[in-house]
Specification:
This protein is an alpha/beta fold.
Length: 212
C-alpha cells in the first residue's frame, strides 16, 4: 500500500520471489560544525561549543542496511571519504565491495540521486546480473531505514561534538558505525524507526525465553 506519500516499488516481491538479499542504501555528509542539541550543565554555566561556524568541509558516508534472504539477519556496511564525495564511480566501487560480501541475488533500494544512475551504473548492472536496482518514491526518506542510522549518528553519538579536524571526525564516525554494525538489537531499532511495515515480516524477532 501507499506509505510515506508514495508507493514502494516491487522491492519486497522481487526479494521474496528471488530469495535475494534486500539492501537499502543512502549517503550523508558529516561536517566539522557540530549538530547542536540541548545538553546538561551546572546552573549558571551555559555550555559553549568551540566552533567558528564557517567550516563546510565534510566526511562523506555511504551506508547499506541489508536483510539476508533465509535467516533474515540484518547487516550494515559502510564507507567514508574524508573531504570527498560519492559520485557514480565511488558508488560503483561500494556496490562492487558489497557484492563480494553478499552471495546470490541482491536487490538494492535507493533514491533517484544523480550518483545512482548514468552510464557507469548501467555498465555495472550489465556486468553483474545478480544485482537489481529499485528506486524509492520521490521525497520519501522515511522509507529508508539508513536515514535513521544517520539521525542516530548525527543527533545522537556526534551531537555537540567539535572535532579538531576531518580525520578526527572520520575516526569517531567509523568507531560508532562499527559499534552499530556489531549490535543486532541496535540495527533492528534503526529499522523500526522507518516507515517500512511491509518489510517487518522479513526481520526475525528474538525468541523470548519460556516463562518459569
Amino acid at each position: 500500500g501507499a506509505v510515506g506519500g508514495g508507493r514502494v516499488p516491487r522491492g519486497e516481491k522481487k526479494v521474496r520471489e528471488e530469495r535475494g538479499h534486500l539492501v537499502l542504501i543512502d549517503e550523508t555528509g558529516l561536517f566539522l560544525n557540530p549538530t547542536v542539541r540541548r545538553s546538561w550543565s551546572k546552573t549558571g554555566h551555559t555550555p559553549i561549543l568551540d566552533s567558528d561556524g564557517g567550516h563546510r568541509k565534510k566526511v562523506s558516508v555511504i551506508g547499506a542496511l541489508s536483510v539476508s534472504p533465509v535467516r533474515h539477519h540484518l547487516g550494515f556496511y559502510f564507507r567514508t571519504l574524508v573531504d570527498g564525495y560519492f559520485g557514480a564511480a565511488e558508488v560503483v566501487e561500494f556496490l562492487r565491495a558489497l557484492l563480494r560480501h553478499l552471495r546470490g541475488k541482491v536487490v538494492v533500494i535507493w533514491d533517484g540521486g544523480g550518483n545512482h544512475k548514468g552510464p557507469l551504473i548501467r555498465d555495472f548492472l550489465r556486468r553483474n546480473r545478480r544485482l537489481r536496482l529499485v528506486r524509492l518514491p520521490a521525497y520519501a526518506p522515511d522509507l529508508n531505514p539508513v536515514e535513521a542510522v544517520w539521525s542516530w549518528l548525527t543527533w545522537g553519538r556526534l551531537a555537540n561534538f567539535v572535532p579538531d579536524d576531518l580525520d578526527e571526525l572520520d575516526d569517531w564516525a567509523v568507531e560508532y558505525l562499527v559499534q552499530l554494525k556489531c549490535d543486532p538489537g541496535l540495527l533492528r531499532a534503526r529499522w523500526g524507526r522507518s516507515d517500512l511495515p511491509f518489510l517487518t515480516p522479513l526481520v526475525k524477532q528474538p525468541r523470548l525465553p519460556a516463562s518459569q
